[in-house]
Amino acid sequence: MHPAFRRPVQRLFVLLCSVSCLLLTACAEEPVEEEPLTQILYYEPLARGLQTTLADTIATEIVIRDSVTWAQYRDSLQAPVPLPEADFSQSMVVLVGRRFASGGYDLDIDAIDVTDDGLLVTYVVNEPDDNCVTTMGLTYPYTAVVTPPTPGPVRFATVTRTFSCAMD
Fold it and tell me: Can you give the pLDDT of all 168 residues of the chain as single tens digits?
């Protein structure tokens, strides 16, 4: 190769190598932060209602692991039918309830997950849209489920969903 061309070719080669390295670096995958491992816990409905004598508290979010505590809470739930006993040697009860200034609200347990740092109970507050006609007065909807016993701390997360009463 003629010496007059050697210098520009070397510069072009260096430039192409630099651009290639930049492109390869830009295309490299970002390290993904791993979320804690979760296991979904199976549960069955146990109790559901719209009124309790727990109305002096704004919210009840509790995991019950013994029959004495369940008896205290069970007696405060104004269930339309007698509530069953839970076998605490093989299960625990998750109870959530919330006080609202009007009717139309409902609660559903959406998921119970076992994570590295304990139990996460996610429940949904179903709230009426402005186009709904509701009763005036305090209500305290609740829901309770039975699930396999799991040790460790418990966290609760709430998701709010609004439903419409419009007749389309």
Answer: 444 444 554 555 555 555 555 555 555 455 555 555 568 889 999 989 888 877 567 889 999 999 999 998 888 888 778 888 889 999 999 999 999 989 999 999 999 999 888 899 999 999 999 998 988 888 899 999 999 998 889 999 999 999 998 887
Q: What is the pTM of this model?
A: 0.73
Distance CA 34, CA 56 (A): 41
Nearest in space to 101 (alpha carbons), one of 39, 55, 52:
55
Q: How far apart are CA 9 and CA 4, in angstroms?
A: 10
Contact at 8 Å (CB) between 159 and 110? yes
Concatenated DSSP letters of 97-135: EE-EEES--EEEEEEEEEETTEEEEEEEEEEE-TT----
Which tokens belong to 131? 């186009």
User: In this structure, is the dihedral angle defined by the CA atoms of residues 87, 89, 91 and 93, taken in order, positive or negative?
Assistant: positive
